[in-house]
Amino acid sequence: MTTADTKATLSFSDGSPSVEFPIYKGSAGSEVIDIRKLYGATGKFTYDPGFMSTAACNSSITYIDGDKGELLYRGYPIEQLAVNCDFLETCYLLLNGELPTAAEKKKFEATVTQHTMVHEQMQFFFRGFRRDAHPMAVLVGTVGALSSFYHDSLDITDPRHREAIRLIAKLPTLVAMTYKYNVGQPFVYPRNELSYSANFMHMMFSTPCEEYKINDVLVRALDRILTLHADHEQNASTSTVRLAGSSGANPFACIAAGIACLWGPAHGGANEAALNMLKKVGTVDKIPEFIAKVKDKNSGIKLMGFGHRVYKNFDPRAKLMRETCYEVLNELGLHDDPLFKLAMTLERVALEDEYFVSRKLYPNVDFYSGIVQSALGIPPSLFTGIFAMARTVGWIAQWSEMISDPEQKIGRPRQLFVGSPARDVPAIDKRG
Ligand code: ACO
After folding, report:
1. Global confidence as pTM
2. What does the mean pLDDT of the chain come to?
């Protein structure tokens, strides 16, 4: 980051002296006003709930231009990565800053593969959960529990210990175990000769009685879902991971915190919510009635899978996901899938509606990812778990960047206090 030529001046209407702040520019995107000295100089804080105008860090990992609908991982457009690279190459890129050479790729794959098994003791954690527990509840618990097994990777001041291999390798195993536990089937161990995504499908759908037959189209679809969700700069769950990590907490606990945040329907829970919404709408003729409810502010109903805090033109991932949706449904002979047809009609109707146009609401990646995952055989309650599996690499890359940033401080937002001023505690007979 470099200092811009201009400076920002803050002046006050009550005659208090004005204060000058430096402005920094990055390699792309909006400049930032450095207000770190604001409180010292004025005794005032800035007020920005939801971080609408606040950059909390500098980062060189992911860049989004919401107006252009552009998403770059380490400078490479998501459209090119999704077509030319697999998920593990993308992981390598996010973690190391450059795409791997063939030799580096081979070594990285081998290292990830070596860590796919989880400690055998982990299965006892699973057995403590209800069989019908939501997968995200199980993942928050079991990922946090990993910190009790892998003490040797917990010295966060040692860069070698900050490597993310264990988490990237073990998330698919834990997500698949979550599914198996829920449906009452035996856990299936990873098979290291399979690719990352094929291995996940194997752990999900093989049983001791029958091996799952790997289908390349479906494996590629899963791999693309993972690539599209791998990182998304300073979103809610990533900021949660950074905030948790800013206290020096271990990475397993930080990722568990990220998973907890991702669970919410305004974030990672949207794909599950979008599919449930489509099922609830049911048929194309119910769309006008549904859209009317969405537009009625008192209904509390949103068009799930639509809208984004950053993308105000289109979500580039949604386009790729729609393509994958076609591929998967064709492969499975489901081209006439009623849910897909309903989704396409709903998308068209919304995109032509003044309410959505004027608010710049476009389908986000999750509008279609639920249909794809459903076609792959993944139950809706596990969609957000798949998202967590994909995003783990982004969380780790961002966490690691934060730990090695010399400007990093423990995250500690301030507040505008609106409660009672100081008062004395009355005796109990004087209260009320
Ligand atoms: N359906 C109907 N109206 C919407 C929707 C929606 N999906 N999204 C936003 N709006 C409306 C808001 O009510 C608001 O209207 P108003 O100006 O009349 O008050 C206006 O559009 C602006 O919306 P905000 O809530 O200010 O936008 P914000 O940036 O805070 O929210 C969010 C973004 C949370 C993603 C929102 O669009 C939403 O809830 N979408 C549905 C959930 C979803 O799909 N989330 C997935 C995000 S992508 C991801 O996590 C991978």
Report:
1. 0.90
2. 93
